[in-house]
Structure formats: structure tokens, C-alpha cells
Amino acid sequence: MSTLAAELPGIDAHTHLDGGRFDPAVLELGERLGIGLFLCSNLGAFQPHPGMDEVREMNGVLAGELRRHPERLRGYCYVNPRFGREALDDLRRNVEDRGMIGVKLWIATLADDPLTDPILEYAAAHRLIVLAHAWRKTVQRFPYESTAVHIARAAARHPEVRFVMAHLGGQPDTAADVVRPHANVAVDTSGTIIGAGEVALAVRRLGADRVVFGSDLHHIDLAANVGKVLGAGLDAEQEERVFGGNLRRWLAEVGS
């Protein structure tokens, strides 16, 4: 990792491209806020069920951004598990040829659908980070939008996979309890409803080793996301783990 990234120990576990690019202004803001590395996926036009050609294009665009910002970005390969062997082949290409460090599961399938098994088996073998969307909703839920229950079931079936449940499950109080028995599930702090109180709750319930900083850029302000972690009343050691210590350890294991 570059000297710059070493001097900026913070890592953002949950970002996206915006219109096919990572805004350089965000990288500059990260410098001021102490966020040195951004883990990023590309959801393209945010279609729930993108076709395989679109998936390949999305991951190819992301690969281009990773090459443009090699010291500041790492990539999650977006996967639509409904495409079976084609999806697995694209994942292999992006990990083994393009150096991506993880898998992004969104809303094409539920996280515990058997269709995800080959993807998760590959992730376990290569120690990839699996960033899995989860949001408990009472209205406007997508048909295949996972909740903490689906993440917990997938984690139980694949105990060697390192999951990061996005958005604290969209309902932190219950979601933290659902995934607590599964030591291979961490949570990220992203989400518009997540504030300092929810960050503190997650650390109390799960421990600082299972909570990581995430912003959901470019959809939300980076400074506000940093502020809610700083406002959570964590001690210095807990803050260090949440802001980057956990992810640095996991990234060091990718491919091992």
C-alpha cells in the first residue's frame, strides 16, 4: 500500500461508483478526514436483475477505475448468482486477473438462496470479503432483498465466508441480535437511518471486531458518516478497529 494510504489509516468498506467513476473530490475529502482506502463496487444503473452482459460491463468499468486509483480503491466484483457458471467465471476473472478483493451481493437473489453457494464457496477458498446488502423494510421492499435473517442463514451454511452485512441490516436493534451467533458476520455502519446510537449498539452487541466503517458513497456524505462513528462514544482501540483495523487484517488475508 502507498505511503499516503499508510498515513490515512481509515478504510471505507462500502462505496459505489457514481456514473461509472469514483469522484476525485471524494478522494480529496477522504484525505482530510483520514480515510485512505475505499472498497468499491459498481451497480451500474441499479437494476435489480442485470443481465450477464451488463454485469461484465459493470465490472469492467470498475476495473478501469481501480487502475486509475490503485492506491486508494479496491474492488468488489458484483455478482448476479442467477447466471450460474457465467457468474462464477466472471468472478474468477475479476479476482484472479483484476485483483478484486471481494464480492458484492445486492438484490438479484436472497443471500441464502442455493444459487449463491458456488459464489460463496469460491469466496471462502480465496478469503474474499462478501459485502451483502440487507435491509428490513415494511414498505417498498424489493422481491429478493435480503434481511439479517437471510444473511444469518447464509453464514451458517458457509462458516468460512467473511460476510459484511451492509447498513446494519436496516434495523440495527433486531439485526444485530440475528447475526450475533455467527462469528463470520460483521456489519457496516452505512445507511441513512444509522446514527451514532446505532453504531454504539452494534459495538456493544457484536464487539468492535465485527463492526466496520462504511458510508454507501456516493449516495450520502462521507463527513456525516465519519461523524456518527466519532460520536458513538467508542474508546480509542474500538475506533481504530472500526475505522480500519478490522479491514486491514481481512484484506491481508485475501488470496491467502
Automatic annotation (TrEMBL):
Coiled coil stretches, renumbered:
none
Q: Which SUPFAM superfamilies does the entry mention?
A: Metallo-dependent hydrolases (SSF51556)
Highest rank taxon of the organism:
Bacteria
Q: Which residues form the Amidohydrolase-related domain?
A: 11-250
Q: Which UniProt keywords apply?
A: Lyase
User: Where is the chain membrane-spanning?
Assistant: none
Q: What is this protein called?
A: Amidohydrolase family protein
Question: What organism does the UniProt record list as the source?
Answer: Microbacterium resistens
